[in-house]
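Sequence, please.
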């Protein structure tokens, strides 16, 4: 399908890897949705992998298929993310996390948490002040630099419906030239939390236990636990945020990225 004359190809870059999204030629609505949702990550480069998509009930026509536009877009984002993770296994520290940066200094906070634990909400809520790097996969190199992955954010409009929206559509700040890790934060959101958020520094053992479960292919790295320990040493104690509303974290994040 990717060689069809009228196929729409959108090439995106995230976490240091480049993936081409090929949209079937008879799916203009899907092609426009892909261009819009991935606007912040679009790049002209040679891809290392390809993912095809089509609005169809025929699963043989593309890697990602379906008749519901929003569902196809959501699954497409997941497929692209998996391609990027596969490309970076054994090279970078990869966290299931969101990341926001100071737009000027590039000092960044990495918010580590499992799925459905508030990462996207934090990125969307605080992205009007801090630069959006990603809401899903944070890739960190040996120099503590974050390789941004400005994927679409999956925004919930009702318990049943979500839409993939770009950082441009949401008005989030663009990534600075060289974002670097200032601090790692473990998110613990709870509807039962009362009052202001609680910030607690974790000792190294508790920090590693909390972080290891939210890494991707950590064992594929050379000396993985040493590399994780070096990251903690280089950025200061890992902080645990216990909170209810993302907006309440704004002053805490500002303090962590301040020079």
């Amino acid at each position: 399908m990717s060689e069809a004359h009228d196929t729409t190809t959108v090439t995106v870059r995230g976490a240091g890897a480049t993936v081409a999204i090929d949209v079937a030629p008879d799916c203009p609505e899907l092609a426009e949705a892909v261009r819009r949702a991935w606007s912040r990550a679009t790049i002209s480069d040679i891809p290392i992998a390809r993912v095809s998509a089509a609005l169809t009930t025929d699963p043989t026509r593309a890697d990602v298929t379906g008749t519901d536009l929003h569902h196809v877009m959501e699954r497409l984002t997941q497929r692209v993310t998996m391609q990027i993770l596969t490309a970076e296994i054994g090279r970078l520290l990869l966290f299931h996390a969101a990341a926001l940066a100071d737009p000027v200094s590039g000092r960044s906070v990495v918010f580590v948490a499992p799925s459905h634990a508030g990462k996207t909400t934090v990125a969307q809520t605080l992205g009007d002040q801090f630069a959006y790097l990603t809401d899903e996969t944070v890739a960190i190199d040996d120099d503590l630099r974050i390789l941004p992955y400005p994927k679409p954010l999956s925004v919930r409009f009702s318990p049943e419906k979500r839409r993939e929206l770009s950082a441009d559509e949401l008005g989030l700040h663009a990534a600075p030239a060289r974002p670097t890790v200032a601090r790692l934060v473990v998110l613990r959101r709870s509807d039962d939390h009362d009052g202001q958020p609680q910030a607690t520094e974790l000792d190294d053992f508790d920090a590693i236990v909390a972080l290891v479960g939210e890494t991707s292919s950590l064992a594929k790295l050379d000396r993985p636990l040493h590399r994780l320990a070096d990251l903690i040493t280089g950025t200061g104690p890992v902080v645990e945020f216990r909170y209810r509303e993302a907006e309440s974290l704004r002053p805490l994040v500002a303090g962590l990225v301040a020079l």
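The mean pLDDT is 93.
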